[in-house]
Amino acid sequence: MVEARGLTKTFTRKKETVEAVKGVDIDVADGELVAFLGPNGAGKSTTLRMLTSLLRPTAGSATVAGYDVVRSPAEVRARIGYIGQGNAGGYSYRVGDEMRNQGRFYSVPTDVARTRAAELLEALELGGLEKRTVLSLSGGQRRRLDVAMGLMNHPGLLFLDEPTTGLDPHARANLWDHILRLREANGMTMLLTTHYLDEADSMAERIVLIDHGEVIADATPAALKRDHADDLVTLRLRAGDRADDSAARVAERARSVLPLGVNRAEDHLEDDGAVRLVLATNHGPDLVPPTLRALEAAGLAVESADVRQASLDDVFLNLTGRSLREEAA
Ligand SMILES: Nc1ncnc2c1ncn2[C@@H]1O[C@H](COP(=O)(O)OP(=O)(O)OP(=O)(O)O)[C@@H](O)[C@H]1O
Questions:
Q1: Considering the entire predicted model, what is its pTM?
Q2: What are the coiled-coil residue ranges (predicted)?
Q3: Residue 249's domain spans which residues?
């Protein structure tokens, strides 16, 4: 559905040059749901705007739904839906008019547009709001209207630029619910940008991590976490009463019986004399039972166990040395 090679965009303004996108390769197969994830200014929107033919690339090429974005922009636009950042611009327009205008923009015959608009508004829980002005809608309703408008031409491929930014958690979940249901019903391919880590993690089948205009990783959320981050299992062990049960001995005995699957182990002496053992692993939850069994069989008392699973922020941190969560904040 999408094939981009060496896609590049350089903005020049008042002698200042910004290399927004630096030679990006992207492939999206039919039916995939792919998220561009990256910090502010990484080049996500610029890439999306080139793929939707809204922005001409400085170099490189892209075909979308089988058409070249530079040579055949009209063919591309007829086959895609695009939901930009803060779309529903005509605030004084009525919801129904916005949908009709969108239909006209895509040359959808009037009677088809009427039926389609009604179906989409119903599917996005906006039924009955046709006569309301866009201005009077809540943030979540406005964003759902954006989605409805983006689907007026029944696209096989939908581009969403930060669809849930600015919405509260309830409205975000609700919007996702609707998007995924429509995707299911229509078999749409979807490409979206987001800086919500949790959203990318749970919704996207594949994540393209973008930083400083470059793709720094491209894989499923699970593979990214497996290859670029560790789960951490933290255990508190009690030093025994015997003379040779010093904290150092406890740590040493614990290390000697750890099961397979531990990438790294560190121990720390706590103020109260307990030993904190931190295990880095790719299989946090699965590692806990055999570890507990092994430690207990070795006569070591485990006071507590905690598992922190790898996150996409850990992945970004390990790849760039910066925290995406902190940059977003
Ligand atoms: N029209 C423009 N003129 C000049 N510079 C631009 C223009 N559009 C984008 N840029 C610059 O290009 C870089 C990439 O911007 P882009 O909007 O693609 O990033 P982004 O990853 O989508 O960020 P955000 O998450 O904040 O939307 C930024 O440095 C931005 O300032």
A1: 0.85
A2: none
A3: 230-309
